[in-house]
Specification:
7 helices, globular, DJ-1/PfpI, stress response, alpha/beta
């Protein structure tokens, strides 16, 4: 049976420029929706993170006023999936050859640790070189920044992609005090970046790279990846 790897951040706080700590964690829909779609399609899904740390839930993703009326279902699915999987795999022990695809969900954690995680960078470089599918949604595309080769070249430069936009970061109230904004950083480093309307589904495919702008883009991203794998 083919396997898919979901890589989570290990971060539970996002340090702001004023030194304050903003609590963070995984965003329920961005983890639950891809997991649900891949399992329904017959794939086995593994979870991994730096050091195998289980990141907490971002409480905002359990608030229906923020995350929508269906958020309780996403929270329940994510918590059940993680509980049943058990201890997460450690990124430095993962063999990418075991998987057909890698999924990078958001929450603010990837801008804290995954964007510079050398083990993830190695896995993504190997995955991309062998044509495996790579999906990243919301703040998950920050994790793509880890994929820098031995010559210091970001392997996703020149690729079309999207992410949580700088406008959405401002509307969410987390742009001021952020050490850097994801959309701006991706553009600065050479991504061919585009974004849609705030909070609306927006997905981009560029070869084996699938990106989604926000939580609403999580399920469509997974559906696109499943269709490509088929």
């Amino acid at each position: 049976m083919s396997k898919v790897l979901i890589v989570m951040s290990a971060a539970d706080v996002w340090e702001r420029t004023d030194g304050s700590a903003y609590p963070t964690g995984y965003w329920a829909e961005e983890l639950a929706a891809p997991h649900e779609k891949f399992v329904e399609a017959g794939y086995t899904v593994d979870f991994a993170s730096p050091r195998g740390v289980l990141q907490p839930l971002d409480k905002h993703s359990a608030d229906p006023e923020i995350a929508g009326a269906d958020c309780a279902r996403h929270v329940a699915h994510a918590e059940k999936a993680l509980r049943e999987f058990g201890p997460l795999l450690k990124l430095d022990e993962v063999d990418i050859n075991d998987y057909v695809a890698v999924v990078l969900p958001g929450g603010h954690g990837p801008v804290v640790d995954l964007h510079q995680d050398a083990d993830l960078g190695r896995l993504l470089i190997e995955a991309n070189a062998s044509g495996k599918l790579i999906g990243a949604v919301c703040h998950g595309p920050a994790a793509l920044l880890s994929a820098v080769d031995s010559q210091g070249h970001w392997i996703f430069a020149g690729r079309e992609m999207t992410s949580f936009t700088d406008e959405e970061e401002r509307l969410f109230g987390t742009a001021e005090g952020a050490p850097w904004l994801l959309g701006a950083r991706l553009r600065e480093l050479g991504a061919v970046y585009s974004g849609g309307l705030a909070w609306q589904q927006f997905n981009v495919r560029a070869g084996n790279l699938f990106t989604g702008q926000n939580p609403a883009s999580s399920a469509p991203m997974a559906e696109d990846m499943i269709a490509a794998l088929a």
